[in-house]
Design goal:
The protein is mostly helical. It has helices spanning 2-16, 42-56, 63-69, 73-83. It has one domain (2-83): ACP-like (Non-ribosomal Peptide Synthetase Peptidyl Carrier Protein, Chain A, Orthogonal Bundle), CATH 1.10.1200.
């Protein structure tokens, strides 16, 4: 399930941040999101937080959690999978 979510998140990151010249395959699952080659900064992270809350119902409500969650697409996917409301354990 994580693999499907990785692909979905790549597309949503590109769409949310209007990265028109970036293809989903250009976003590595384990590459740093913030400060990496995509040029994502703290303002972009706020936009991504809103997208995650709206689309997945998962809150990221403090800076420490956010730093871990947005370390990579894979860490974001894991956080969503572990914290989705109504998720079966």
């Amino acid at each position: 399930m994580e693999d499907g979510l990785l692909g979905e998140l790549r597309g949503k990151i590109i769409e949310t941040l209007n990265l028109m010249d970036v293809a989903p395959e250009d976003v590595g699952a384990d590459e740093p999101l913030v400060g990496g080659h995509l040029g994502i900064d703290s303002i972009d992270v706020l936009e991504l937080v809103m997208m995650v809350e709206k689309d997945y119902g998962v809150r990221i409500d403090n800076k420490e959690v956010g730093a871990k969650v947005f370390a990579s697409v894979r860490s974001l996917a894991r956080h969503i999978l572990e914290n989705t409301p109504g998720r079966l354990n």
